[in-house]
């Protein structure tokens, strides 16, 4: 598998997971996080989404110098995306530990939701700016 093919697979997976995490986040807002099953679905999708983000960063930057390379990004959307991703994952962990202990929605869960929605909005902007990558074919056409 080529790096370009892996990146295309990763990006399409990110798109599906982004829609899934957004839908489950909206569902949790609607039901005020009262369903244990929906919270766990959101947590599982979030873990898959986070793992795919790590894979995406690895495909672009390797394992070294992520912070420096993200700081040097020309696009302010990409830099803010990194900041909000970090804030979202930190608040997710705090909210999850609180929720596991009490099975109640907490103020940090509300903050996590707002940060998550900003993160998703930035991720959509990041994706739209690179939409040509999604439209290209994965493999060049063979001649002959």
Q: Can you put this structure into words, describing what you see?
A:
The chain has 144 residues and is mainly α. The chain is 81% helix and 0% strand. It has six helices and no strands. The longest helix is centred in the N-terminal third of the chain and has 29 residues, at 3-31. The protein starts with a helix and ends in a 9-residue tail after the last helix.
Largest sheet: none
Write down the Rg: 17 Å
Termini Cα gap: 22 Å
Shape category? globular
Structural class: mainly alpha
Contiguous low-pLDDT stretches (5 residues minimum) are none
Multimer state: single chain
Describe what is shown at a glance.
This protein is mostly helical and 144 residues long. The protein contains six helices and no strands.
């Amino acid at each position: 598998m080529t790096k370009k093919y892996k990146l295309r697979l990763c990006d399409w997976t990110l798109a599906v997971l982004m829609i899934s995490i957004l839908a489950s986040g909206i569902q949790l807002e609607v039901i005020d996080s009262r369903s244990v099953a929906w919270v766990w679905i959101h947590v599982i999708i979030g873990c898959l989404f986070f793992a795919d983000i790590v894979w995406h960063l690895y495909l672009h930057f390797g394992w070294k110098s992520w912070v420096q390379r993200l700081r040097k990004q020309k696009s302010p959307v990409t830099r803010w995306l990194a900041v909000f991703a970090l804030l979202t994952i930190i608040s997710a962990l705090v909210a999850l530990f609180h929720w596991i202990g009490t099975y109640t929605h907490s103020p940090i869960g509300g903050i996590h939701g707002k940060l998550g929605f900003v993160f998703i909005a930035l991720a959509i902007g990041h994706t739209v700016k690179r939409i040509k990558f999604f439209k290209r074919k994965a493999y060049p056409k063979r001649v002959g």
